[in-house]
Amino acid sequence: MNEEKAYIEGRHPVEEALLSGRTIDKIYIAKGGKSTNANAILDMANEKKIPVSFVDRKKIDEMSESHAHQGVLAKVSAYAYLELDDLIDKIKSNESPAFLILLDEIQDPHNLGSVLRTADASGADAIIIPKRRSATLTPIVAKTSAGAVEYVPVCKVTNMVKTIDKLKDCGVWVTGADMNGEKLYYQEDFKGPMALVIGNEGQGISRLVKEKCDFLVRIPMRGKVNSLNASVSASILMYEVRRQRDASS
Questions:
Q1: How far is CA 110 from the centre of its chain?
Q2: How far apart are CA 245 and CA 230, in angstroms?
Q3: Radius of gyration of the chain (CA)
């Protein structure tokens, strides 16, 4: 997403953007699209004095990247990524232990969107992605996240290995998801400050990042296929973190 073309697409993502207080320049609604959801968006837009245009659906089709806009699209400023130093300050000031997700070159925007959605639901503090060879915050990611992109900070870093070193200096333990992990994921203790590393869709966690992990855990596989989708693996591990922390509170 760039400054020239920054859109949020779909009813729920636009609703969440409105609810989160994000600055919206303009909302486009397809003519004849006054459903219950569209009316709710219209009410919130009027309350916040955000201009709304009713246009032909074809115009929204032309602006849409995801092509799943449901007749609603909002023009916004580009997403602001969190700086690593700001994230570290944040986790140091939090009363609860750090809960971070590191995505090592996840390239499918649908996977990034799904991870964002689960990260929000499970209470993760932030997601960290590399600046290169990674999906970034696009309209497709925002749509797949169902609006969670408005609530989960995303930090984009130049070097994932050095980032892990900085996190470790702050007392964060780093656990990677790997099919050859020495422990099953539910045997690991996730109650302290920690970061989960999820590898990309093809090769998993890169060698240098894997070497930096304090622990490697695996998800038991009983079928013929030997791995899960990256966002599914991330969801299983994030909810194990949530389960352990809720059980100990």
A1: 10
A2: 23
A3: 19
